[in-house]
Design brief:
Elements (H helix, E strand, L loop, with lengths): L4 H6 L5 H10 L3 H9 L3 E2 L14 E2 L5 E6 L8 H13 L4 E4 L6 H11 L3 E4 L1 H9 L8 H14 L3 E4 L5 H9 L9 H13 L4 H4 L1 H11 L2 E4 L14 H19 L4 E5 L5 H14 L5 E4 L11 H14 L4 E3 L12 H22 L4 H13 L3 H7 L3 H10 L16 H9 L8
Helix pairs in contact: 4-5, 4-15, 6-7, 7-11, 8-12, 13-14, 14-15, 16-17, 17-18
């Protein structure tokens, strides 16, 4: 018998989840098992999530993307969030994080898990504030852990928990002034709780208690980066690096208990610092899968942060990041709507795929080669079929019809693809 996917891997057991992931990734099952035993790959798969279609995250695997959604006090519409869930699954998101922080959070979470074949993540710290309906200062250690256990019971596959920000790191934040302080929502709440109560971070102090819950349900810990930079000015500063060192230590403690671990990362990072950030995480956290928000490569593009994030995400993943959290055009401005969510998903999928080409992931380049062959054949139906967003490609094509069906309205009869094909086939050419 085994307790978790990691425990099975260490025992030499290839689970059904491993077989599914290995088949999907064109990877030998034995190699996948070895990577999991060493913590280089995780398969977040809570035993309570019965309709899960498992996905792997980590070394030698396709870069995965996550979608955030959930209800808030200002935008409390469960039906809309469930509609977003359906759309995210349709658009091939690999994971969904429920960031709900108000109202009937458990009801929504259970519906989400029941509906979703993709892995589900949460941030219990958000729910502690919303569900307990108490002032932050008055929440007890036992209450924090009761919320974590409830999420595990409900079938959550991975949880973001900010275990790495202890009192020492909090002091580092205070001594090294940042432009944007702590921008992690969960991290800022924990920092405030620690300051108000003059106590250590309960998830750091009682980390073994957290591991008990995760081992019981096979929940993957996503070690949250409370000190992730919220501006390019704050990237790679002492607080971020100190927290990363602590997360590396916590990773080893989790692995000793056969609990799977991901590490969360920045944030906002200038292009020239991204590769170094990826190297630091892999080195300090012993090769554990890296899950990054963005990173956003500039701070001046509100309304377009799906683009700043896709630029950073592609570079990050090409340099070792394994999991990209999508960013929408609404980032920093408001809760995303359905259209924002789609823009964010497609941007993240483009970034992930571009990185997979660079990483030599099996099948990645072949997709592009198929598209190039369709373009050389001037086969527009095939191009649309192969597009990462066929709906948008089809709409653009139908919006502006050319005189000749095997051209587009940009080049018309001067289409180089069409003309080269004719010339090389020995045919006459007329562009008048």
């Amino acid at each position: 018998m085994y307790t978790t996917q990691m425990d099975a891997a260490k025992q030499g057991i290839i689970t059904e989840q491993m077989r599914i992931v290995a088949r999907e990734e064109s990877l030998e099952p034995g190699l996948l098992r070895e990577l999991m035993a060493g913590g280089k790959v995780v398969i977040p798969a809570n035993r309570q999530h019965t309709n899960l279609s498992p996905k792997g995250v980590g070394e030698k695997l396709r870069t995965k993307i996550n979608v955030n959604l959930g209800v808030s006090k200002d935008c409390y519409d469960m039906e809309l969030e469930l509609e977003k869930t359906q759309k995210a699954i349709e658009l091939k998101a690999d994971a969904i994080m429920d960031l709900s922080c108000y109202g009937k959070t458990r009801e929504f979470r259970r519906k989400l898990i029941e509906l979703s074949p993709v892995m589900i993540g949460t941030v219990p710290m958000y729910d502690a504030v919303g569900m307990l309906d108490k002032d932050l200062k008055d929440i007890t250690v036992d209450e924090f852990f009761s919320v974590v256990e409830r999420h595990a019971e409900d079938g959550v596959d991975f949880m973001t928990i900010h275990c790495g920000m202890n009192l020492q790191t909090a002091e580092r934040v205070k001594k090294n002034k940042r432009l944007t302080n702590i921008v992690s929502r969960g991290g800022s709440l924990l920092f405030a709780w620690m300051e108000l109560n003059k106590q250590e971070n309960p998830f750091y102090e009682y980390y073994d208690r957290l591991l008990d819950i995760c081992e019981k349900y096979d929940v993957t810990i996503s070690l949250g980066d409370a000190c992730r930079p919220g501006s390019i000015n704050d990237a790679t500063d002492p607080a971020q690096i100190e927290e990363l060192i602590t997360m590396g230590e916590l990773t080893k403690r989790a692995w000793a208990r056969n609990v799977q671990v991901m590490i969360e990362g920045p944030g906002h990072v200038a292009i020239n610092e991204i590769a170094a950030n990826m190297l630091l995480e892999k080195r300090l956290c012993h090769g554990a899968p890296f899950y990054v928000l963005g990173p956003l490569v500039t701070d001046v593009a509100p309304g377009y942060d799906h683009i700043t994030s896709a630029i950073g995400g592609a570079i990050a993943a090409a340099n070792g990041a394994d999991f990209l959290c999508y960013v929408t055009p609404a980032e920093h401005l408001r809760l995303p709507n359905l259209d924002d969510m789609k823009e964010g998903i497609i941007a993240s999928r483009i970034a992930a795929h571009a990185a997979d080409i660079a990483k030599g992931i099996p099948g990645a380049r072949e997709w592009d080669n198929q598209m190039s062959a369709a373009r050389a054949d001037v086969d527009f139906p095939r191009m649309i079929e192969l597009a990462i967003d066929p709906e948008k490609a089809r709409a653009y094509r139908e919006e502006s019809k050319p005189e000749c069906e095997d051209t587009c309205t940009m080049c018309g009869k001067m289409c180089p693809m069409k003309n080269m094909k004719k010339i090389l086939n020995g045919e006459d050419l007329s562009i008048i």
